[in-house]
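Hi there. Long-time user, first ticket. I'm pasting a complex I've been working with (about 678 residues overall). I'd like to know whether the download I got is complete or cut off, because the file seemed smaller than I expected. Thanks.
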Amino acid sequence: MRVAIVGATGAVGHELLRVLESSTLKFGELQLYASPRSAGVKLPFGGQELTVQATPEGAINADLILASAGGSISKEKAPAWVAGGAVVIDNSSAFRYEPDVPLVVPEVNGEAALRHKGIIANPNCTTAVAVVAVAPLHREFGVRRMIVSTYQATSGAGQKGIKELLDQTRVVLGGGEAGAEVFAHPIPFNVIPHIDAFQENGYTKEEMKVVWETRKILGDDSLKISCTAVRIPTLRTHSEAITLELERPATPEQARKLLGRAAGVEVRDDPGAKLYPMPLTASGKYDVEVGRIRSSLVFEGGLDLFVAGDQLLKGAALNAVQIAEYLQEQGALKGRVAG
Amino acid sequence: MRVAIVGATGAVGHELLRVLESSTLKFGELQLYASPRSAGVKLPFGGQELTVQATPEGAINADLILASAGGSISKEKAPAWVAGGAVVIDNSSAFRYEPDVPLVVPEVNGEAALRHKGIIANPNCTTAVAVVAVAPLHREFGVRRMIVSTYQATSGAGQKGIKELLDQTRVVLGGGEAGAEVFAHPIPFNVIPHIDAFQENGYTKEEMKVVWETRKILGDDSLKISCTAVRIPTLRTHSEAITLELERPATPEQARKLLGRAAGVEVRDDPGAKLYPMPLTASGKYDVEVGRIRSSLVFEGGLDLFVAGDQLLKGAALNAVQIAEYLQEQGALKGRVAG
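Hi, the file is complete. Here it is re-exported in full:
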C-alpha cells in the first residue's frame, strides 16, 4: 500500500510521521507533500530521510492520503485524489458536515468509516478529545446536555502558533510589549476567547464545530451542547471542563469504572495524590486524560469532569492513522501491504 | 478616621495602597502592618513613604482595618481588633460563612454591610468577579442554574505566584525543566485544575467558595451553582466562562442593555471588532469586563457569557475599599474624617 501525507511539514504533519513510525498500519511507500516552498525539505522517517515534494495539481499516485494542509487545499484537491483511486482521510473541516462523508473517531464510531465514498473526515481537535471521554458515558447513561469550556493550546494554530507564543513571551520577559500576528491579540500571559470566525449566533466556528461534530459522531442530533472555546498560553494539549446532564443517574465511581475500561482514555483522577489531567502530563500521550470526575451540583445524577488530550495526536494525527488502521483491519484498504 | 492595612506588603496590600490613593474615602492616619520580617520596609503612598510595622499581638489603634494577611492571622487577631473598636474588612475566608458576618459586594448587596458586628467579609476573588456580572441578570431574569469554568491568574496565589510563573517560564525558555513550589505542578505553559484543597465531594474549596459565596451574596440558597476552578499561566485577572439557566427568558440584547447600566461592569462585546473580555485589557481596570454574551444552546432563554476581572482589584483590594466607602457614605464609620 502506498501512503501519502499532504501537509507533511506542518505541526500535524510532523506528528503524522511520528505516529506512522509506531503504527500497526502496513504500508510500503510513503510520499510527503507540502507547499512548493517546502519542496526539497528532508524529514526523518524510520531511520531514513524522505524528501518533501510540492503537492501536485491533480491526482496523487497513492492508495491512502492523509491530508492536513488546510481546508482550502482539501476542498480543491481531494476530489481529484479520490478520482485517482485514493482513500482520503482529511484533517480539515472542508467535508466534515457533508452527509455522505463519515466523521470518525475509531473508538466511538469506527464502523462509520466503512461507509465512505472516498473521503473520511477527521474531527476538530477539541471535539475528538472530548468525545472519547463522553461517548462511553453517553452510551451507558445517555447525555442530555453537555457544557464545555476549553483551554486550548497555541499549537492548535500550527507551528506558527507555538512560535508566536515562545517569541512573544521572550519579548514580555525582556520588558517589551508583545505583538500578535497569528492570534487576534498578544497571547503571552493572556486569555483569548476567540478561536476561528464568529458566527451569526455569537458563537465562534470552533465552538459550533464542537456542537455539530459531537452530534454527528455520537449519531444523536437531539443532544444539547454548548461550548466556550478559549485560547490560552500553552504549547500543546487542549484541556476541557465538561458538565453533563444525564438521562440515567451516574455516580463518579461508576463513571471512573466505565472510563477505566474505555479505549483511548486514561483515567487520571486521584486528587489526593495531585493526579488530574494536565497538558504537562497529557502532551505526547496517545490516551486522553480524564479526571476531576465528580457529581454535578447543577444536574441531579449528572457529572462534571476535566479532560486533557494532545490535540496534535488524538485531536489530529493519531486519530487519522487510527482510522487507517481500522480500515486496514477491516480489509477496506486496497493496495499491496508492503512495497 | 484612622485606617490600618494588615498584610501591606502582599499582592493585595500593594493594590490596597493604590486604590486608597484615588479613593473617595476620607481618612487621616494610615498605618501599615505585615509580618515581622517586613517591618521597616517603606512603601509609597500619596507622594510620601510609610513604614511597615510588625502586626501587634492585640488591638490596633484604628477605626478601620483592611486585613489581607491570610485566614489564620485574621481568625486569630480580628476578634481583638473588633474588641479594640475597629471595623474590620477581611479579605480572607476566615469569617465568610459565619451567619452574622456580612459578605459584601457593594454593587450587589451593599446594605448587608450595615448589619455588621465588627467584621465584614470580602468575597473570594473568583466569586466577586462573577457576581457583579450575574447579579443584575439574576434580579431581572432569575438565575436558576449557573455553571462556571475559571481561568485564574497566578497572582491569585500572591506575589510569590507571579514570581514562580515568571522565573519558571524563563527556565523553560532557557531549555530547562520547570519546578514548582507555590503551585502543585509546574505552571509555565501548563493548566492546573486544582486551586485550594480538595473537599470530600471532589470539588476544591475554591470551587465550593463560588457556590457558597454566590448564594450568600445573592441571598438565594436555592441557586444551583457548579464551578471548575483552573490555574493557568497568566499574571493577573481571572476570566470565567459562565452558562446561566434563567427563570424568565433573556435575549443577548436585553442582557447587554441591562449590564451596560450596571455598576462595576464594562460591557465589552463586539466580536466583529475583536472586542471581548481578556486579561490583557481587564488588568488594572476597576470594572469587570463582560462579553461573548449569547443565547445558551443548552437552556432555552438562557445565556452564555465570558467575564474578565482584575482579581486583585474587584476580587480583593478595590472591593474592600468600596465597602469602606459605602459605610462612610452611610455614616456608618466612626472616627474623625481627616486626621
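A couple of notes from our side: The radius of gyration of chain A is 20 Å. Chain A has two domains: 3-123+316-329, 127-311.
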